[in-house]
Structure prediction request, 130 residues.
Amino acid sequence: MPKRLMIVLCVAALAVAACHSGSSTTPTPSFTPSSPSPNPSVTVAHVFVTINGSPRPRIPVEESTPKSTSSPRPGTPFETLLTNKKGKVKFGDLKPAKTYCWVAILGGGKRSSECADWEIWQTTLITLGS
Prediction:
């Protein structure tokens, strides 16, 4: 390596080291996080049903609220919808602060269920099945 190139690289390394000496590496937050709360404008949940990893159409999905808040398990269904050709179904008119449960009736006596509070159903796709 030519001496001039080595000298230039050494000077550059020293300059970089001098610029960073005494500086903090901890970033300062640009905002103050607020406590999370339900979004009142989101009143739908999207459910995706698969069987052996493949999306399944025309699978009945029941919607309910939990039997108990201490142990969220599906309660008595108040709505049942079928999945579309892509294995998805959309449930509407949900209350933003409530917990809901969904049960996919997979056939052969098999079921797949999930209960989710607003932090889940307002922001993610509920996936049921096998």
